[in-house]
Amino acid sequence: MATGVAAWLPFARAAAIGWMPVANCSMPVAPGDNSRKQDELIVLNVSGRRFQTWRTTLDRHPDTLLGSSEKDFFYNEDTKEYFFDRDPDAFRSILNFYRTGKLHYPRQECISAYDEELTFFGIIPEIIGDCCYEEYKDRKRENLERLQDDQEDNKDLKLPHMNFRETMWRAFENPHTSTMALVFYYVTGFFIAISVITNVVETVPCGSTANQKDMPCGERFTVAFFCMDTACVMIFTVEYLMRLFAAPSRYRFMRSVMSIIDVVAILPYYIGLVMTNNEDVSGAFVTLRVFRVFRIFKFSRHSQGLRILGYTLKSCASELGFLLFSLTMAIIIFATVMFYAEKGSSSTKFTSIPASFWYTIVTMTTLGYGDMVPKTIAGKIFGSICSLSGVLVIALPVPVIVSNFSRIYHQNQRADKRRAQKKSRMARIRIAKSSSANAFLHSKRNGLIDELLELTVRKTP
Amino acid sequence: MKAKNRDQSLSDSRELDGSYDQLTDSVEDDFELSTVCHRPESMDKLQEQTKFTKKELQVLYRGFKNECPCGVVNEENFKTIYSQFFPQGDSSMYAHFLFEAFDTNKNGSVSFEDFVFGLSIILRGTVNDRLNWAFNLYDLNKDGCITKEEMLDIMRSIYDMMGKYTYPTMQDDAPREHVESFFQKMDRNKDGVVTIEEFIESCKKDENIMQSMQLFENVI
């Protein structure tokens, strides 16, 4: 808007009539307006398409190429026009910026091509109008991510002069770099699986012996299971210590999620070793064994899908929070209603509002165990409303989470595909470049040869 | 403008209180948005009625239409444009008085004809015309005489426009004092109001004012 307002300058000066009679002294003379020469039309020839505009329109933004004297470099004396060898479609929106003061981003333009045009004409992209700014930022971010993915792949190349520690860290992070790393990767994966299966089988009843009834396998083959557990924990401990040694920033590594999972996975074993068969603490010890199940999370180093899931949940934290909050609200409301509705009926299971929480949760998630069932008519009506609303409340945030997951998953897939095709793509680019360079050189050489021939022919008439 | 309010109400809880009736507002919206789009009279007519040349009219109209594509300026727009010339103070009151002065047919909007007529008088008119126009600006209720209250309003708006950061800094009662000195100078018969004859007479006698009038010669 500021650009067109300059045309209202005469009006602003004229408005001075308002305070002139009350002024105590005479008004100062206005500065002479040197730039008020006759407004002329400028012709801008962009790759053959001619654009015409007033000179004052271009002068509105003197910090750009077209508004400053930089455009004189492109002036063609013969045709009396300014010639630019650029894309005429992108130039349209640039010229509109001078005319209206607002820069728009045309959706069908490639983002990097558009950026280049803006840089050429000296316009900063931050002035893109609100209507198009979000789209521009989104496309730019996507493009940047794509470039970053490419760059990360380049990091896989072996850097010279890496000491032992750095080699080890790289081996841990990217198993594809060396055979040792691959072996380590598979061995740890195997032992995680073994440990998880052991934990599960430990509790299965193993068939009765002569004197006792069914007992779980863990109690029957205590020694075997203990040896298995020890082996797994030793492997995990060694792995953790090696990672800790190799980490470039130990403090940051210790704070990372994977390292915490590692520690939680092996700690119960050590605590169990330290504690004796004391009766009081053995209860706590049993609880501690639950944490052994966390070993299954160690698989996330081995599975990309698991990592994506974790990342999605983290990025949808606000949606999940909203889901939790709305569910809690609904549970409390319906539990209260059901409690008071069922208060009248005899031998009711709805003994208190917290007791009704269970019924509400089971109904809203459409599980319907049937252990708590309303008996009064009012209770049944409210129970049905509860189950209907449960479906709605749960269905609302789920699409957001799903779309987030889908976006991240596809991004990863794209990155993987690009990585897989990278070799062939590089080869293709190399061939194309070399062939065009060869053709260029060839034509130059032919030109030289022709010139030589001409010279010799002329010399020998 | 109404459509924006509708969107805003989703974020505050006015809707829940039932104090905002969406239905009727939306019906009115459609009729309001298809507002006036004014086209000025032909350039020849304007050239006859004002003292501008064809080229000057062209330049003026191009600037006018760029800023107000629908052909008329309403008060909000007017104030915005004016505030861009005087960023350091609050020029809204003065812009309001100016708007009243330009809007000769009192329909709440300034068309290109009003704009050009006003400018023609100020920039190309005789001294009498200009003084007449200035008197019209000061006379807020258009009753033919300027009272002290009207003058005080105008003075305050001018002081507001200059802003707080003038040098030397203005006192709070500077407008009032200025009004007193103005009335002393202009009010011949000391009856507390300034009529148009008194105004024109006093201004013509004042050398400063006459000299300032010469300013307007080269504005466009």
Automatic annotation (TrEMBL), chain A:
One GO term describing the cellular component: neuronal cell body
Keywords: Cell membrane, Cell projection, Ion channel, Ion transport, Membrane, Metal-binding, Phosphoprotein, Potassium, Potassium channel, Potassium transport, Signal, Transmembrane, Transmembrane helix, Transport, Voltage-gated channel, Zinc
Domain (BTB) ranges: 38-107
Reactions catalysed: K(+)(in) = K(+)(out)
Signal peptide per UniProt: 1-16
InterPro entries: BTB/POZ_dom (IPR000210), Ion_trans_dom (IPR005821), K_chnl_volt-dep_Kv (IPR003968), K_chnl_volt-dep_Kv4 (IPR003975), Shal-type_N (IPR021645), SKP1/BTB/POZ_sf (IPR011333), T1-type_BTB (IPR003131), VG_K_chnl (IPR028325)
Top-level lineage group: Eukaryota
Main location: membrane
Cellular compartments annotated: Cell membrane; Cell projection, Dendrite
Topological category with respect to the lipid bilayer: Multi-pass membrane protein
TM spans (from-to): 180-201, 221-241, 253-275, 320-341, 381-402
SUPFAM superfamilies recorded: POZ domain (SSF54695), Voltage-gated potassium channels (SSF81324)
Example of a GO MF term: metal ion binding
Protein name per Swiss-Prot or TrEMBL: BTB domain-containing protein
Species whose genome carries this gene: Scophthalmus maximus
Automatic annotation (TrEMBL), chain B:
Organism: Scophthalmus maximus
UniProt-annotated location(s): Cell membrane
Name of the protein: EF-hand domain-containing protein
Gene3D superfamilies cross-referenced by the UniProt entry: EF-hand
Entry's family note: Belongs to the recoverin family.
Membrane among keywords: yes
Residue intervals of the EF-hand domain: 90-125, 126-161, 174-209
Keywords (A to Z) from UniProt: Calcium, Cell membrane, Ion channel, Ion transport, Membrane, Metal-binding, Potassium, Potassium channel, Potassium transport, Repeat, Transport, Voltage-gated channel
